[in-house]
Amino acid sequence: MNSLERLISSANGEPIDCVPVAPSIGHYAAFRAREPMTKVAYDPELMARVVLESLERHNYDTCCPITDYGVGTENMGSTSVIRDWEQTFVSEFAVQSKVDIAGLKIPDPLKDGRMPVAIECGQILLDKVGEQVGVSCGISGPLSFAANLRGPQQILEDILLDPVLVHELLKISQEALKSFGEALIIHGGITTISIYEPMATLISTPQAEEFSFVYMESLIKKLKESGAFTILLHICGDTTRFLDRAVGIGVNILSLDRDVDLAKAKEIVAGRATISGNVATQNLFCGSSDEIYAESCRCIESAALGGRYALGSSCEVPLETREENIDAMVRAARKFGAEFLQTGRGKELKEFSH
Ligand SMILES: [Zn+2]
Q1: What is the rounded distance in angstroms from the CA atom of residue 265 to the CA atom of residue 268?
Q2: Helix 214-225 vs helix 163-186: crossing angle, to nearest 10
Q3: Domain assignment of residue 201, yes or no
Q4: Residue 51's closest CA among 114, 108, 139, 130?
Q5: Which of 8, 16, 45, 334 is 20 to 30 A distant from 212 in Cα terms?
Q6: Confidence band, pLDDT 50/70/90 cuts, at residue 344
Q7: 8 Å CB contact between 193 and 233
Q8: How many whole angstroms from 102 Cα to the centroid of ligand 1?
Q9: pLDDT over 50 at 275, yes or no
């Protein structure tokens, strides 16, 4: 069973040989390959090479181009900070006042900034390993995209004081994301799109509905009409309150942060979607490989029975994570995961750790 077959069978609740494992690998791949992000971010072939090197090194089941919240927003006037050995972030925001909204233009995903890099990197990954592993690409959720046009702190204030402005920004963000997503699907050939919407967890459930889920629903509908087969959603923090709604808007994979109880999530989702998670990224960064192995086994015990589960990291894997910690996750999915799926029982975790 190759990685792709394993992912598909797991999503369908069919028998699998071991537990799929899909750590959220981004900048880590470039860091580990000792290739500076200032080069990788602009060179689709180099990006594909570092992504494939990491895949080959660790042998997990999925891969994707390296994206961040600057992709797209930087072409509308925000400023991304791309440094060689750091996570990319947005430092200055396009919309300082209401009048700036009128000047926003939807960028061309085939020409502008780093969007073409992600699309071309996606094509290369699909060509090289698309028949063996799951290839996806990440985009922002609408509220998180808008937050990187306006500033995360400012948009939280706007939600309370000027909701009309936020809706205007969201409409433009949604259009930009639909255009980028469509290009990834049609020109890149990518059929799994991962949506990252960390802003949703910073606001109340009714606010998240009004300022995120309504727009995400429309975005997902468009992506699926364009040919997307699978939509993954990642929201940071305890997202238990959102899970049922996320399934309702067409999310197929819920990537869960460390605060979510996997067994409870699986109960809520009730076979309507796959869940993935949630080895804590803090532990991947600081913990020992034995600790990561034990934590991975606990995740598997909580959620792997019956399939529709992939062992994953709780958020993007930190750059300086030690390789043996990713190896420990993969080993737990392959070795302990296979045993657990066969017997339905956890064993003494230590017995399996080496
Ligand atoms: Zn996260």
Answers
A1: 5
A2: 20
A3: yes
A4: 130
A5: 8
A6: confident
A7: no
A8: 31
A9: yes
Ion ligand 1: protein residues whose beta carbon lies under 5 Å: 236, 315
Q: What is the DSSP letter of 272?
A: S
pTM for this one?
A: 0.96
Please tell me the total count of domains within the chain.
Answer: 1
pLDDT in tens, 142-194: 999 999 999 999 999 999 999 999 999 999 999 999 999 999 999 999 999 99
CATH of the domain at 143: 3.20.20.210
Q: Could you list the residue range(s) of the whole structural domain that residue 171 is in?
A: 66-135+137-189+192-228
Q: Is residue 317 part of a domain?
A: no
For 206, the token pair is 């009714």
Helix (H, G, I), strand (E, B) or coil at 101: helix
CA of 314 to the centre of ligand 1 (A): 6
Distance in angstroms between the alpha carbons of the first and the last residue of the chain: 23
Report if residue 25 sits inside a domain. no
- Bridge partners of 137, per DSSP, are 193
- Find the 313 Cα to ligand 1 centroid distance in Å: 9
d(CA 50, CA 124): 12
Of residues 95, 223, 217, 184, the one with CA closest to residue 147: 95
Give me the helix-helix angle, 44-58 and 323-331, nearest 10°: 60
Ligand 1 centroid distance, CA of 164 (Å): 28
CA dist 237 and 315 (Å) reads 9
Q: How far is the CA of 103 from the centre of ligand 1 (A)?
A: 31
232: DSSP letter: E
Q: Please indicate, yes or no, if residue 181 is contained in any of the structural domains.
A: yes
